[in-house]
Structure to design on (101 residues):
């Protein structure tokens, strides 16, 4: 898909990707492909056979000339959640079984 992965970070129930999209791809198209391919791989593991992605996602654009803080944040997800930094609050998207707030 000609998508460049700039940073990856994960926590127990979510992932963050910082990617560079070509102008010929939409965010929805890329998210759909990532979710689809990763579901196939994860479902092959007996421990994760029932894995399912939530229905939504969040997407933000970042200034390419000032992206280093965002890339560091994405790469250090475990640390942010361990310390419960303020940024963790804006990550909450409201799961199907859990209201926000």
């Amino acid at each position: 898909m000609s998508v460049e992965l700039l940073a990856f970070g994960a926590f127990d129930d979510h992932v963050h990707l910082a990617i560079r999209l070509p102008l010929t791809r939409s965010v929805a198209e890329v998210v759909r492909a990532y979710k689809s391919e990763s579901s196939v791989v994860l479902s092959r593991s007996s421990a994760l056979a029932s894995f399912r992605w939530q229905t939504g996602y969040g997407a933000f654009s970042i200034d390419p000339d000032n992206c280093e803080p965002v890339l560091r944040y994405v790469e250090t997800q475990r640390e942010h959640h361990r310390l419960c930094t303020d940024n963790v609050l804006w990550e909450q998207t409201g799961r199907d079984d859990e209201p926000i707030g």
Summary: The first strand starts at residue 4 and ends at 11.
